Amino acid sequence: MKQRELTEKQRKYFKEYRPRHTDRDWDLLRMKIPSIDILTLPIAPLFMEVMGKAWPGKRRSDPIETYFEFTYDELVAEKKMKPKEIDLLIDLVSRVVKTEEGEKKMVRDERINELTQDFFLRTLEKFDVRPDLPVDFVALDDESLNLCSGAGADDLEKVLRHGIFLSEKKFLSGELKDLVNAVSTESPQLMARFLPVIPGERGIKPWKAMEIFLRKIPEDYRAALTKHFSTGASKFPDLDAAEFEKLCKRMDMVGLEFRSLFPEESKAIREGAEGEKGVFHDIRDNELRALACSVIKGRDNSQTQPSPNKRKRVSYVRGLLNRVGVS
Question: 20 to 30 A from 161, CA-CA: which of 43, 59, 68, 217?
Answer without folding.
Answer: 217
